[in-house]
Amino acid sequence: MLAGRRILLIIGGGIAAYKALDLIRRLKEQGAAVTPVLTRAAQEFVTPLSASALAGEKVYTDLFDLTDEAEMGHIELSRAADLLVVAPATADLMAKMAGGHADDLASTLLMATDKRVLIAPAMNVRMWEHPATARNLATLLADGVLTVGPNEGDMACGEFGFGRMAEPAEIVAAAAAGLGEGPLKGRHLIVTSGPTHEPIDPVRFIANRSSGAQGAAIAEALANLGARVSFVTGPAEAAMPRGATVIRVETAQEMLDAVTAALPADAAVFAAAVADWRVDGAQAGKIKKTAKGGVPELRLVENPDILATVARMPTGRPALVVGFAAETDDVIANATAKRARKGCDWIVANDVSAGTGIMGGTENAVTLIHAEGSETWPRLSKAEVGRRLAARIAAHLTAGA
Ligand code: CTP
After folding, report:
1. What superfamily would CATH give domain 6-178?
2. pLDDT over threshold 80, residue 293
3. Are strands 366-370 and 320-327 parallel, antiparallel or unpaired?
4. Number of the ligand 1 atom closest to the C-alpha atom of 272
5. Does the predicted model carry a pTM greater than 0.85?
6. What is the C-alpha separation between 177 and 326, in angstroms, rounded?
């Protein structure tokens, strides 16, 4: 997957640095050449010798090493690579990158490069949630820096939350995607996400509780596998997926139009919580409470079913059409019936009853239903559900390819 590619791996000073050694091994397994650079802090966690032994290459640590500078200057070092990967990207390294500092070899290389940069943040959950880190991340994303993780889980410091570095296999996949590689390279996927807003008048609308988190996680995971992703989203709270083309819509009709315009696609995932009804004859002016006739009566009409429309297209139907089924009762039976009714290939069923905390929450418990039967996944973070589903889609689309 990475044959002939050179990766400059900047290892930051955090406990996750030990995973960077496994990352070197896995990048090499994929055919990449790896040049490790260790910050001074990184050398407190892993030795240059182990990084060098695994990479089979010279390791760089010092900006002012005259021998290194004579052999290969830092400008050349940063440009000889096809991609720069920072793993772990500590809060401090992210701050330096966002601020444009160049006071050691790692930060200087990151400033001097003309190549894409992928960071795998790793830090304590409070540091990750700190407004300064959030600001720095926003700056880095705006600068076009690619990111992978962090994941949620137990941390070396004994706390739980977001801050664990992405696993080496995920970083390899993200590096491949950053280089335009990956199992879904050359494939186009459409993902719908979020709620839709159906206007009542210019200030009021009908909506639902969808945050758009699951759809965004799926889109990002697909992009990380190298796919070109068109992400058609209603007005959602969740962060937009990195690496996808975002197409913003408001209503179900606009969502259908945007999906149709984005076709053809190899696969489409309909994760949006589309409003089933819209108000017939939404008012151009604000409906006044004081209007004659008292409380207004809203007449609802059915919205187009985007999933069913695409799944039943006579020509140009994506090879794989995946729907979601938000249910509160008889989840599997209802979802199985929904799969047949809508004509999709797979349906991802989830229980959105009030007590589950799934609608608007960070976790999901799903059952994947297909022609061969069904499989229930354990309760997982929405990010993990996204990764698993993306991996399944990639395996399906590339089977026999
Ligand atoms: N969907 C869609 N367009 C609609 C309604 C739903 O594309 N107008 C898609 C959703 O994105 C999801 C699937 O259809 O993939 C099922 O959505 P869900 O809300 O569970 O089902 P409904 O069709 O609304 O059926 P019901 O209200 O009877 O559960």
Report:
1. Flavin prenyltransferase-like (3.40.50.1950)
2. no
3. unpaired
4. 11
5. no
6. 31
